[in-house]
Fold these 2 entries.
Entry 1:
Amino acid sequence: MRMYDLIAKKRDGKALTTEEINYLIDGYVKGEIPDYQMSAFLMAVYFQGMTKEETHAMTMAVAHSGDMVDLSGITGIKVDKHSTGGVGDKITLIIAPMVAAQGVRVAKMSGRGLGHTGGTIDKLESIPGFRTDLNQKEFFETVNKTGLSVIGQSGNMTPADKMMYALRDVTATVESIPLIAVSIMGKKLAAGSDCILLDVKTGSGAFMKSVDDAILLAQEMVEIGERAGKRTEAVITNMDVPLGKNIGNALEVQEAVAILKGEGPKDLHQESVNLAASMLHLAGKGSLEECKVMAEKTLTDGSALSHFADMVKAQGGDETYIQHPENFKDTAFHYEVKAQKSGYITHMNTEEIGISSTLLGAGRETKESIIDPAAGIVIEAKTGDMVKEGDLLATLYANKEELFEASAKRYANAIEIKDEAPSKQHVIFARVTRDGVERFD
Ligand code: URA
């Protein structure tokens, strides 16, 4: 077999066999296939796409390119969840304890933030003492004791994805639905849970800018998961507006705690209950409606909050910050962004708002950047709200005053204010299961 022939085959729009896909993934990880040939192949996939057979075969090859996590040391059904990434997305912090409070295990590996999106690991590490580098024994013990644990990726999981993602990033081949599906599902299958909930975000702060593309990606991923024997569902959620009010690591933990206490913004509450219900449903706890009631109950009876505090304590964190989020250290400086004119907020460019938060020190511009856990943004007015000239749009938090100028400019430019009210904002657009697509108006 020659890589040259596989590139030519894909360039000409033909489908590769499973054997050929295994050859190219294996050869690439072993260093036998050079980056320039893999780049050409990825670009051919970008233009020609892949069949369902090819996408499945490549996902399995990526999943098996490194360690496959064996979660059999954890009792009960394990449900995983993946978000395609967004701004203000603290959903994992909320729904993992909600689900655990109903007896379904969450043994989750999460990532750090990069670019305009945040990462769950950075958020958790803003809690003093919290460890995300548990070894396997500690990880299993934490899940068996508290029902949940969230750690960073360790060991040699999916090296093929790490290598291909880095290459796609510099060869303009990230935006390919089959390649994104392979990348996400390869990692999810290697992570070892029994069921997978996918939160596919759409809008100006997401990879998938349109609902239709988000549905196509979701369908592809659900099919891969189900074919691999994992119950898999996807929910298409709105990332055309930041989720909740807080952006930034410690600020997002504080908002997650508010939701766990039955308080907090309505959009975040609604999305959390729906996603937690989907996870419970996947785990066989009942109908979706029954699972929504179960999910709500964990917020009103305090059980989700106490599961979160138990996990924080078990992973070395100071759980008093969960009971008293006001203990989180504030930044030295605040800056208020005010409305330049009166009218309705008709659009928020969410990627730009994510960048505005990164400029305050809340996110990473490169993998090596050091983040400021206290930095970020608290939003006071969102899409659909009416504001008067001079009203507060958002408060920026930073420990260096000189960071405000660029960040505030970016934030203000990201907000569109017009005379006409915009149409109603969706929180959830659709649900994708093995049985089909259900759209919500
Ligand atoms: N997230 C991933 O993990 N992989 C992609 O290709 C895109 C988003």
Entry 2:
Amino acid sequence: MFIKNKKILIIIGGGIAAYKSLDLIRLLKKSNNEIKTILTKSGKEFVTPLSINALTKSKTFEDIFDKNSEAEIDHISLSRWADLIIVMPTTANFMSKLSLGKSEDLATTVILASNKDILLVPAMNVRMWIHKATQQNVKILKDYGYLFIGPEKGEMACGEYGDGKMSSPRQIFAYINHYFNKRDLVKRKNYKALVTAGPTREYIDPVRYISNESSGKQGYEIALALSKLGIKTTMIIGPSNLITQKNIKTKKIVTAKEMLIEVKKSLPVDVAICTAAVTDFRPTIKNKNKLKKDLNKMKSINLEKNDDILEYLSKNNKYRPKLVVGFSAETENLNKNSISKMKKKNCDLIVANDVSKQGRGFNSDYNEVSIIDNNGNIKIIKKNKKSYIASKIAEVILDKLLVNDRNFN
Ligand code: CTP
């Protein structure tokens, strides 16, 4: 089904492929979408405002300080107006500006001020595309959450062959359709997600506790990524320095017991993702006063097991979420141990990460994970920022939810 009544802002960049933006505008207008455009200074070298206006039936925005503009502040009103922003073609230079967070003209300022998804459509010479600097910028931009389509392999305007050709207006149109259809479906389904995150602390006395190195970052990023996909997300998080986000219902807890209480209160949900590094044991008694340095009394601490929250969720008869996702922190036999953990805990997916490797996992901004399903399929997401890993995990979760629903509806 073709999308309609969407508000799309197209930023036309400076490249030989700029003229193809007119075809995309035509396709989007034909299915009754509203289009506004920004023409960059170099874009103007390739297409004229007149040809754009003829198609969009509205003015093309060009300058950041436009005396004739009706809107009070264009860069804010344009970004708030749009449901999606597209930059086509996206040049290597434009990407480098975005990766630096520049706001030097209307296009870059709108993007920096935007609270919407931004789809980049790269087009450039193959050497420019594969240059380390460009690839580094792509990595940064993906981490910032920019969406990409293409570039494709093919012959370029300069006569060379390789990656760098802009995706065709039809491919972009299909991408946009898929993007909105999926979002609209998620909205209709009104999915709810629960994420456990961070460590728990199990107190020995008022100042000492048993805990672990978890920063809560991976779970926090997953909660953000799910909410960005339109899923109503509740996060139950142990002690961490992360800033709470307006769009995520956040419940802060300290102990595993408190985490389980909040989990129970948050049910029912469609999907539960247990990223928390729940401390497995707690002291049988928490001393009321600070313990003194008396070795005779402190030879050992009696411990008891905390309930397994993931297991509670996946074996819950009344409120089992449609999808239960576990995490598995291992230092050896990553896949084998994670698969047996998934079976033992009866979850549907397990995200395995090797916590023995330097520079990723606990207390790091980076991670590398394998997503394993209960048919034994393994999807590896190579080392990257936790925010990027989270967006990939969230996509897999959403796809599984949608497939599940299709099978059961
Ligand atoms: N988990 C949980 N409640 C617990 C312990 C673990 O919900 N009391 C969840 C974690 O959030 C994670 C999964 O179980 O999703 C696996 O946690 P992990 O620490 O890797 O394994 P454990 O089950 O604790 O087993 P072990 O420490 O022996 O590897």
